[in-house]
Amino acid sequence: MSGQGSGGNVIAAICSFFIPGLGQLVQGRILAALLFFVVVSVCYGMAATVILIFMWIPGALIHLWAIVDAAKFRARL
Asked: Disulfide: which of 13, 21, 52, 54 matches 33 by Cβ 3.0-4.6 Å?
């Protein structure tokens, strides 16, 4: 990846839009990818229950964070 705003980061952000953490996985950041995927999946899963329906809010915010994080990532040299 070249850096922030590069074509690779745009593709990673699009990947994260569909599956949270996929953009980080495309960038080679396995731990961040796993963390985003698990946290968002748990929040959305809890929101699927009638009792914890409000959990879609933190799930959506963290999902958005995953997209922005993939788009703004800069590789360290």
From this structure: 21
